[in-house]
Structures are given as structure tokens and as C-alpha cells.
Amino acid sequence: MSRTNQSSISEFLLLGLSRQPQQQHLLFVLFLSMYLATILGNLLIILAVSTDSCLHTPMYFFLSNLSFVDVCFSSTTIPKMLANHILGTQTISFSGCLTQMYFVFMFVDMDNFLLAVMAYDRFVAVCHPLHYTAKMTHQLCALMVAGLWVVANLNVLLHTLLMARLSFCANNAIPHFFCDVTPLLKLSCSNTHLNEVIILSEGALVMITPFLCILASYMHITCAVLRVPSTKGKWKAFSTCGSHLAVVFLFYGTIIAVYFNPLSSHSAEKDTIATVLYTVVTPMLNPFIYSLRNRSLKGALKKVVGRVVFSV
């Protein structure tokens, strides 16, 4: 297939989640509400951590980074979908589609890496408390986050370049609300075997390795908690870990279901629902999950909200 065939499609159509006007209006309100909740919740955490010196610890440093990533993550997909609804258009340029795909999966990778780092941080704090300050220094934490950004960008650059080499000939309708890898591969009239192999090998390694690290960390934490004599202490620890793991399983479960299966086994409707869970629901839940049972963070959040209310 010649390179000129690729240029015959200069834009794609994002069909969204529904073609029925009534459902579209309902989905607009729902997604706008979820987006505002995501932005507000995550920005409050960033403000609380940055303004309260008591929260200048590795755990909250990673949490504020996760909140920043989640704000950016949600902002790569939802505003475009909302704007398309208001303007009555569905188009996105070829370069815009690849750019959106790049940033979506860069932030997916960062969410993935930060969840693993946060689990490791809790493992060191619970299982090796005497060595915690020596192991988790501020310099090491900053270097870890910087390194994760580099790895995430390199990983996504590989997949974006592989996508850019493909040809798109006739059909340009994407049955999705953003430029996702799976529907783009289905639209391509080129051989997508290399893309699929890289996703199932390198992509799986990038996603599954942190997931296994999270599971291993929480297994060690569970063993340590079981040795705690206080029943109340055990229940509090298990309820906290349980809520964290629920978000982890939601995030990884949907990603594995969508991307790490052969293209022939995919359903557009099921894939769209699954991607909503990890692109919209998970970033919205993270602030609530990580602050709900955290007294220090709740105290800092109350101070931030109090300052905002009194300054108005």
C-alpha cells in the first residue's frame, strides 16, 4: 500500500457513545459531571499536598503526581467529546487523532507506573518501617517519577510511530469517543500484525509487570497486617487496602480486556464500555479512594476548602 493512500484520509469521525439524540444529551451531562468531579477532586489533593508541610512525604508526593496525571488523562478525551457535542461535529484530524492517542496512553502508562510505585512505598512503610526514611528519600522519589515519565514517553512513542506508518483508505468512522488503538487498527487497510505483536509483547510487559509488583506488595502488606494483634487495626488496614485494590483491579482488568486480546475477538460496544471505566471512572474515583480513610489528607483538604470559601 503506498504512502499516498494514507493521506487520502485527512480526518476521522468520532462516533461517540450513542447516536440517539436523547441519550447523547444524557451522556453529555453525565460526562461533564464526572469530568468536573475528576478535576475538582484531583486539584484539591494537589493543593492540599503542596500547601501542607505535614504532607511533604513520599506517599503524598506520589499521590499528588497521580492526581496531576489523572487531571491530564481526563482532559485528553472528555473535553473533545463535549466540544464535539456542543458544536455538532464528529471530526478529528489524522495528526490530531495520533496526538490524542499519544497523550492518552502516555497518561495510562503513568497511572500504571505510579500505582505500582505507591504500592511499593506502602510496602516499605509497613514491612520495613525502620528503613523507610533511608530508602524512600526525596531525591530517589523525584528520580523515580522523572524516570517513569521518560519510560512512558518512549513506550508510547513506539506505538504511535507504528500507528503512523499504517494506511487508512476508505472507512474513517471510529465507533468510539476518542482515538483508541483497537478501532484504529481495525480501520487500517495495512498489515497490522507488527502492531498487534508489539502490543501483546512489549505493551503487555509494560502493563503486567507493575500489576504483579502491586499484587506482590499488597501480599506482603497483608502478611504484615495479619501479625498485628489489634482486631480494629487489622480491619482498618484491610478496608483501606481493599479499596485501593478495587481501583487497581478496575483499572488493570479493563485495560487487559480491551488491549491484550486478538483483534478478531473485540466488540466495539464492550470495548467502549471498558475504556470508559479506565479513562473516566478510575481518575474520578482515585481522589475519593485515597483520601476517604486518610485523616491527614482529609484535614488538609478541609483547610484548603476553608481558605477557598473564606476568600470568596
From TrEMBL:
Keywords annotated in UniProt: Cell membrane, G-protein coupled receptor, Membrane, Olfaction, Receptor, Sensory transduction, Transducer, Transmembrane, Transmembrane helix
Domain G-protein coupled receptors family 1 profile: 41-290
Superkingdom field: Eukaryota
First and last residue of the signal peptide: none
CDD domains: 7tmA_OR1_7-like (cd15918)
Statement: the UniProt record of this protein carries the keyword Membrane: yes
Bilayer topology: Multi-pass membrane protein
GO molecular function annotations of the record: G protein-coupled receptor activity; olfactory receptor activity
Any one GO CC term of the record: plasma membrane
A Pfam entry, by short name: 7tm_4
Sequence intervals crossing the membrane: 26-49, 140-158, 204-226, 238-260, 272-292
Subcellular location per the Swiss-Prot or TrEMBL entry: Cell membrane; Membrane
Family per record: Belongs to the G-protein coupled receptor 1 family.
Protein's name according to its UniProt entry: Olfactory receptor
Encoding gene, per UniProt annotation: LOC112614536
